[in-house]
Amino acid sequence: MLTNNLNGANNQAAGNANTVVGQAPASETADMFTKLLVAQIRNQDPLEPSDPSQFVNQLSQLSQTEAMQSLAKLNSTSASVLESIQTLALGAQVGSDITVKTHSVRLDGTPLKASITLPAASATNTVTLTGSDGVKHDVQLGSRGSGPQTFSIDPVALGLAPGKYDIKVQTSAGALDAIEVIGRLDSVRMSAGGGVVLKVAGIGDVAPSSVTGFNGKSGASLAAANSSTAN
After folding, report:
1. What is the pLDDT of residues 39-81, one digit of tens each?
2. Which of 8, 34, 155, 193 could pair with 160 as two cysteines, CB 3.0-4.6 Å apart?
3. pTM, whole model, 2 decimals?
């Protein structure tokens, strides 16, 4: 009976130790684990003492758990700091023109500047804008050589109503993955999920990973900034 009771206490102490390691903070875990380990040693069966290697394994598990908790906390802190730095850096670019790789645009009557990169000369190049109503509008770019090719989209000249349009480019060799559109960076904010979101004129909300270039402030933006400073 004595042996059974002692073994039961021994097993319960071990189980409690594992539970505490999994739930308590690191400092409390170490303190509670030590107390439970001492209780486990005191209540072991004197006729069948526990293998010392079990205690070593438990201490090793505690150290590993504390190390993992510290690493997770460090990674979380580092990610938060990097996001803050990224937000501040991008915030300094508000008002600048940036180049964004995109599959859609938001037209409001203002012409957009865009570009494509052709791997080889193409005799026919067609930009297709598809509105929310499913109607497609083609813009012929004509024959183009290889390399970067710039063009503009004038919604008024094309008779396009304001709204969001999917945009694709078809060349003689096939469709391009996406085009690059130049727009003004209007704002930088944090999303509900903690990520950074950029609001770009002519495009809408985009992720920082979609940005392919920073082009500085246009003449109009600089004039507005100088006027604001003067006032």
Report:
1. 776 776 666 666 667 766 766 776 777 777 777 777 766 666 6
2. 155
3. 0.58
